[in-house]
Amino acid sequence: MSVRAKKHLGQHFLKDENIAKKIGDTLTERGYKNVLEIGPGMGVLTKYLLEKSYTTHVIEIDTESVEYLKAHYLNLADRIISKDFLKINLKDYFSDEQLAITGNFPYNISTQIVFKALENKEQIPEFTGMFQKEVAQRICEKPGTKAYGILSVLTQAFYHAEYLFTVPPSVFNPPPKVDSGVLRLIRKEDFSLPVDEKMFYRVVKTAFQQRRKTLRNSLKTFNLSDSLREDSIFAQRPEQLSVQEFISLTSKIEKDVV
């Protein structure tokens, strides 16, 4: 018995044992006792996670995959969550316990998985896994490039991001049309922002929505005072600003808007 990859779920099953083991080894095992694998499919990565000292849980929306896992991984059966990760409340399953997230993520929802993890950052000290290469690079990108954007700034405000290695299409069934990339996010020791988080998100998203414009033009909707708009930071474009500078910008806007 094997599971058929379903296009509508964005499934590309990893078939290379060495890559699976490498992804399993990306978790540092520090600061948590539980790991949640998203989209385990037929368990090629799962088997390596089960060898580790932490407790492995999996979440899988595909009922065919769930049946396969129950049949082949008997010791995992009561830790299979047959739900959509994007729709669950983590606290319903893990209370307030710290847990790491990993997986070979479906390309079509991978950025949504990151945003969901950011919403639950108090509970997630570590996040590793495989994305479409350009998405993984975007998350880890530094300022000053075209790839640096909303995803880079919001993730790196709370996590240290590291691009680990590239994976070719040939190790999947069916093979995707692009390379994949594996990354690791480790939550910062102090991951609370000195500004209002909602305002920070709003500033970052608004700035990058018109990324070719200077901040003076892209942030017009904030109705800022003329004196603040003369600040030199507003002459820059969003990709030129570091995470710290975006925090500083948000602080200036908060004081101006009050």
UniProtKB/TrEMBL annotation:
RNA-binding is among the record's keywords: yes
Keyword annotations from UniProtKB, A to Z: Cytoplasm, Methyltransferase, RNA-binding, rRNA processing, S-adenosyl-L-methionine, Transferase
UniProt keyword Transmembrane helix, yes or no: no
Gene: rsmA
Tree of life domain: Bacteria
Broad EC category: transferase
EC number: 2.1.1.182
General function of this protein: Specifically dimethylates two adjacent adenosines (A1518 and A1519) in the loop of a conserved hairpin near the 3'-end of 16S rRNA in the 30S particle. May play a critical role in biogenesis of 30S subunits.
Places the protein is found: Cytoplasm
Name of one Pfam family that matches: RrnaAD
Residues binding S-adenosyl-L-methionine: H12, L14, G39, E60, D84, N104
Protein name (record): Ribosomal RNA small subunit methyltransferase A
GO cellular component, one term: cytosol
Predominant subcellular localization, coarse grouping: cytoplasm
Every Ribosomal RNA adenine methylase transferase N-terminal domain range: 19-189
GO molecular function: 16S rRNA (adenine(1518)-N(6)/adenine(1519)-N(6))-dimethyltransferase activity; RNA binding
Similarity remark: Belongs to the class I-like SAM-binding methyltransferase superfamily. rRNA adenine N(6)-methyltransferase family. RsmA subfamily.
Catalysed reactions, semicolon-separated: adenosine(1518)/adenosine(1519) in 16S rRNA + 4 S-adenosyl-L-methionine = N(6)-dimethyladenosine(1518)/N(6)-dimethyladenosine(1519) in 16S rRNA + 4 S-adenosyl-L-homocysteine + 4 H(+)
